[in-house]
Amino acid sequence: MRFVIVTGMSGAGKSTALKMLEDVGYFCVDNLPVPLVPKLGELLMVPSTEINKIALGLDIRSGQSFQEIEKALTELDKMKLSYEILFLDASNDVLVKRYKETRRAHPLAGPNRVDQGIARERKEMEVLRKRASWLVDTSRMLTRELKKEINSIFVENKDYKNLYITVLSFGFKYGIPGDADLVFDVRFLPNPYYIEELRPMSGNDREVREYVMSNDKAEEFLDKLVDMIRFLIPNYIAEGKTQLVIAVGCTGGKHRSVTLANELYEALQKDEGDYGIKIEHRDIEKDAITKKM
């Protein structure tokens, strides 16, 4: 029997996660009143061959009874019923944006602003967040990426990486990414833009990569950057950080930054460390779009 309690901040993707678990064979129960959770636990203690995987959705919609969650979990512990808690979270800014896009009312906001409802909910959900077996930050996740993580944990039974790293290339002329935790400037390197045959290419092309990395300063910068990031990662994990955005910028975000971001991504990916990682190139196509306008 595998019993998963799916919870988290409203708008962080709980309903989506429940649907994904249902698709891989979990029997899903959503929004069960908290006082009934121990009753469900008693039913699960009865040997059954029909249901061996169950996911229970709990969130702030349970109202005042939600304050009894710690008592309910204690009763499950007394039964010696094994359970896991999947907590879905996202940054306040992302949650506000999602609510505005869907035009839904936050369950705790009432006549107040959405961000006030989120603040109240975050305080009330802290008891579950602290007890979470799995903490997934969906702030920068696409639906397919969340599905991949759900499959990794609950289908493939792999260890989930609580820290998720995004290596992001960008162009300074389009602005520094607002969500960047670490920003590195590679404009000191020779610019392939001024080489006529390289100008239409990007850092994803072999010719540009070879041109950029043929410079001794690029190799030295990369070595020091990788060494520093490797030092920082375990410290961020110990701090409880769940999202790390490493931004590498050049003038237009097409050549040098893309090349160095790719190199950093490949180096960190080989480490197979205690983190997940992906790469994004924010501005790689913007020069071409701007010139057509």
Automatic annotation (TrEMBL):
SUPFAM superfamilies: P-loop containing nucleoside triphosphate hydrolases (SSF52540). It comes from the Bacteria. ATP binds at residues 8-15. GTP binds at residues 59-62. Residues 164-285 form the RapZ C-terminal domain. It holds the Pfam family PapZ_C. Gene3D superfamilies: P-loop containing nucleotide triphosphate hydrolases. Residues 1-157 form the RapZ-like N-terminal domain. NCBIfam families: PRK05416.1. HAMAP family: RapZ_like. This is RNase adapter RapZ. It comes from Dorea acetigenes. The gene is rapZ.
